[in-house]
Amino acid sequence: MGAVTDWLTGVGTAATAVVAVVAAVIAYRAVRESKRLRKDQARPFVAVTLEPSGASRHFLDLVVRNHGRTIARDVRFSFDKALRSTIDDTGYPIANVKFLRDGIATLVPDAEYRVLFDSVPARHEANRSGADMPDSYTVTVRYKNRDGDALPPEEYVLDSAMSRSAPYAQEFKMHDLVKEVGKLREEFHEWAKQANWD
Asked: pTM for the full model?
């Protein structure tokens, strides 16, 4: 009976050792994954989007924002084709915007750079008239973390036609009120002139 007991003790010891090794491997992987996840969560995350402008949904802003939890350094942009806008002829070509052309030295968490990209109706009309302005651009964003280590590049597709036919509810804001008050003022002055109140 002693041999059976010794054999069972040996099997139990071996099984305990196997369970301990498996538990150690699982714990090691969990710690490694936890470190990777913590590192990913603590990094900057710079995104480039086209968003409706605060002035009107007929305008699109090009927005660069750091959604991450730490600072992004040396943020650089490259576009698959030259940026073009119907407002380029007003003296402010979108391709010459400083932060798009030269990059951003530091972009803190939740900070954003925003610039008027284009008027959706004007762009659509220009293309209907043969201007051949691209509806979409692919932008590659390269940047470094707070320690100066380069992060993998991010690639985004900016599609100006996405909102062209989408219905939306008109939201009136302070600038709309100011415009209406200005119109009322002009009308009042006209009435005053007609009534000789001036």
From this structure: 0.68
